[in-house]
Amino acid sequence: MIIMIILSWLSLTFVWVGGACACSVCFGGPSDDLANVSLRYGVMFLLAVVLVVLGLFAKFFFSIYQRTRLIGSTSLEEDGSH
């Protein structure tokens, strides 16, 4: 039964493989096509979003580090042990 499901899935995949031919650059089409330009802008936008999120994570951890150092230095001054 599992073999039949796998074979039918593979056959449907090979039948509908025409959707993979959507990019005109891959098949020698003009690279200034409107779809390609929008795709480039979309990829750049998503990369910018990822970079902003990673930058905010770095800022968050750096602020935690700074607050930890600030709390550590004030607690040592209050102890009077150093």
Descriptive notes:
This protein is elongated. By secondary structure, the protein is an all-alpha fold. It has one domain (20-79). It has two helices and no strands.
Features:
2 helices; elongated; 82 residues; mainly alpha
Q: What is the helix tally?
A: 2
Mean pLDDT: 77
**CA radius of gyration:** 27 Å
Helix and strand run: HH
Biggest sheet record: none
General shape: elongated
Uncertain residue ranges: none
How many domains would you count in the coordinates? 1
Binned, the helix content reads: over 70%
In angstroms, what separates the terminal alpha carbons?
Answer: 75 Å
Structural class: mainly alpha
Topology:
Elements: H1 2-15, H2 34-79
Brief synopsis:
By secondary structure, the protein is mainly alpha-helical.
